[in-house]
Structures are given as structure tokens and as C-alpha cells.
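Title: Comparing notes on inverse folding

I've been comparing how different people in this forum approach sequence design from structure. To keep things fair, I'm posting one structure and asking everyone to reply with a full sequence. Here's the target:
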């Protein structure tokens, strides 16, 4: 059984046991390790394929937080020719590494 979820403006195809990095999102107070994705677009399994329009109502994907990680450094370089203007900066995005526990309808 697999599902297509949407989080952080991106779509992911997930199965039980998958580990993936998603954009950092607000979590409930108490530092809970559980993450719930309720924006499910599609679920496929033995019972066939169920698609939402655009979301599948009642479908939930539960995951557990493995750890917080940072993505690779992206370099930003700005320059204006013949003006002596150069700027160099870097950025690293924060991610949550999660392991998919359950897909339910």
C-alpha cells in the first residue's frame, strides 16, 4: 500500500517504512515525536486506487520523527559587472527526517 502526500509545497510517494526529509513544520507542544500528514492526495493498495479531488477526506499518514537535519549548502552569488559589487552568501534549509508508520483511510 502506498500514498501520495503533500507537505511543504511538495508531493511525496510514501510506503510504510519509508524514511524521507520533509520541510520543517510546526509541531504540537510537548516535543512529540509523532508527525501526521492529513493532506493525502491518493492511496493505492489491494482495494484499488482511491484519488481525492484534490484531497482524500479521512485519509491520514502517520509518521515518527527520526531527527532534525539540515540540507546541503546552497551558495548565493550576486554581482554587477563593472561596478565592483559582489556579494556571497550561503543557505542551509532545515528538514525533518521522518519514518512512515501507517497509512489509513
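Reply #1:
Here's my take.
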Amino acid at each position: 500500500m502506498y500514498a501520495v502526500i503533500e507537505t511543504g509545497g511538495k508531493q511525496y510517494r510514501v510506503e510504510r517504512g519509508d524514511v524521507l526529509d520533509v520541510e520543517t513544520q510546526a509541531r504540537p507542544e510537548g516535543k512529540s515525536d509523532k508527525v501526521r500528514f492529513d493532506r493525502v492526495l491518493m492511496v493505492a493498495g489491494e482495494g484499488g486506487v482511491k484519488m481525492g479531488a484534490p484531497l482524500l477526506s479521512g485519509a491520514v499518514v502517520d509518521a515518527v520523527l527520526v531527527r532534525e537535519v539540515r540540507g546541503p549548502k546552497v551558495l548565493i552569488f550576486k554581482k554587477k559587472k563593472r561596478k565592483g559589487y559582489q556579494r556571497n552568501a550561503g543557505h542551509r534549509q532545515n528538514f525533518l527526517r521522518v519514518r512512515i508508520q501507517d497509512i489509513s483511510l
